[in-house]
Amino acid sequence: MTDTPIDWAAARRTVYEAGLAAKLLPVRYPIAQADGATLAEPLRTLTPLPAFRTSSVDGYAVRGTGPWRLAGRVLAGGEAGDIREGTAIEIATGAMVPDGTERIIRVEHSTVLNGLVDCESLPTTNADIREIGEEAALGEELLPEGHRITPGVIGLAASCGHDLISVRPKPRAALLIFGDELAVTGPPGHGRVRDALGPSLPSMLSHAGADPIPGFRPRGPIDDTLEAHVSALRAALDDADIVCTTGGTMRGPVDHLHPALAELGASYVVNTVAVRPGFPMLVAGLPGGRFVVGLPGNPQSSIVAVVSLVLPLLAGLAGREFPTTSTVELAADVPGRGDYTHLALVRLVAGRAEPLPHAGSAMLRGLAAADGFAIIPPGRSGTAGTHVGFVRIPA
Fold it and tell me: What pTM was computed for the model?
């Protein structure tokens, strides 16, 4: 592939399709360990929901006309049995409704005197009884394959009887920091700049849906030699589905990523993207469905590459839907970048996107205050009051 930049939207779709073609094999996880993974098959009920008639309130189950003789109590988790004509059974929220129950009277609407339960007016409906299958029938599909698992999904899976579920795990990610000019402690100076991506990218990758590999949080800075680059990439690829690198994506005298990829037998999925900032980004595929994502070394450019390439790649590998962008209203004008898509740092204030200062590709001040990027298409500029695309920074 040549270094001719590919359109930004096309690059995202191309990378997603490559990830989807190499999506991770399903595994079975205990539901409590599945947070952040992706359903590898539809989530279906193993029982009707609810599995038995339950009370949605505290009160009294009654049969016949009142007042009713109090004849017992049923609590959540207990067997209810039957209810006889003219009697009432005290019932707790979530408890099994006794067979033969005609109504449930809420505790706040009832009185109990001398063993008799009475109420001012009998409910005309059974709204406080949750019927069998009211929420879902046996075997009903609750969520489709490809749905990302959240704590709410875990709770739903547990409620309908699952102990294990089939998932595609979060892609394992490693991070390599290229550039022996970087300092990893203390203030920058004397020609060395402080590495800002090593401390921040692992967390961002985690928010994006990756599983950063222990021991690779991160590795580097890697020496500026081809041998060091190849060795570091080989070691990382032994354990990772996706290896993110920072710096070295151009073809300067100490940029060794491209020759290292060639030595490893990689093939480009995307090589440079028509986006500003951050156009010298890339994704390369290797045997076994593994990928290297080359992030530019400038901090903001690197984050642009994360939202441009890493997010769709992770979605594809996990078998999720393509990550679409949303829209926002611009609070101020945003310039275009000619034939390139412009990703402009913005923060959301009262539902509108405010462009941020300190937005140079090497600056972090604007990035630290940002919610995401406004998307200004090629050949256009953004005008205050108009709606444009928006992609959120994983955080």
Answer: 0.86
